[in-house]
Amino acid sequence: MQKAAVLLLICLMFLQEGFAQQDYTALREVMVREQLEARDISDSSVLAVMRRIPRHEFVPEDYKDLAYNDRALPIGEGQTISQPYIVAYMTQVLGVQEGEKVLEIGTGSGYQAAILSELGGEVYTIEIVEPLGMAAKRRLKALGYRNVTLRIGDGYNGWPEVAPFDAIMVTAGAETLPQPLMEQLADGGRMVIPIGPHGGVRQLTLITRKNGKFKSEKLMAVRFVPFVRQSGKP
Ligand code: SAH
């Protein structure tokens, strides 16, 4: 009798888990339709990966149910995972193609790295806050991402051993353009980075490099957690 009760309980737990997963899939679909397609996200590969990747696995337990809302969320250590629309927009602008070498500065939860990886990029990502970086590493491994290499450290200097990169995404707000990142951009490469004063509104900026020449284009006003240096100062 007791055995039967335990079995029933286990079955119920599995069922509940199944329902929760279905709920998340439904929430994700609504997110893609209402927050991305209804705005200006039209790149089919970006939409497909945002439909697939379980964003709720990248946020703390208490925020799972809010994972698909139209907002940024705390991920611990005073940092945030960006709003889905901003993630999609930056990804669309970067236009990563299968097999391209991609550098991300500011791993945070690892969500953006997962997206770049599912687009077929060979992803290198740097996080300055060690506990966040370690947690992201475990999470990405558990979710089966193999083409993401993560390093803990100050991303200001990029990753010279692996450079040049076809695409660079900076997901923390910088006051100025880090020179080493410019130098590590391949010819034909793209970099997307929020630039502006700390505490204020920044401009999401697209830098492109062609025939050795750099072009800079302001895309939209955004708010981002600050890009900090190893000294701990912004
Ligand atoms: N892309 C992340 C969100 C990033 S929030 C995601 O998908 O979840 C910005 C991150 O940049 C924070 O985790 C912050 O610790 C990190 N960061 C800030 N300055 C940095 C630097 N100089 N080098 C590397 N990471 C940095």
From TrEMBL:
It catalyses: [protein]-L-isoaspartate + S-adenosyl-L-methionine = [protein]-L-isoaspartate alpha-methyl ester + S-adenosyl-L-homocysteine. Transmembrane segments: none annotated. Coiled coil: none annotated. Its EC number is 2.1.1.77. Residues 1-20 form the signal peptide. GO terms for biological process: methylation. Keywords: Cytoplasm, Methyltransferase, S-adenosyl-L-methionine, Signal, Transferase. It comes from the Bacteria. The active site is at 82. PROSITE patterns: PCMT. The keyword S-adenosyl-L-methionine applies. It is found in: Cytoplasm. The keyword Transferase applies. Pfam families: PCMT. HAMAP family: PIMT (MF_00090). NCBIfam families: pimt (TIGR00080), PRK00312.1 (NF001453). Catalyzes the methyl esterification of L-isoaspartyl residues in peptides and proteins that result from spontaneous decomposition of normal L-aspartyl and L-asparaginyl residues. It plays a role in the repair and/or degradation of damaged proteins. This is Protein-L-isoaspartate O-methyltransferase.
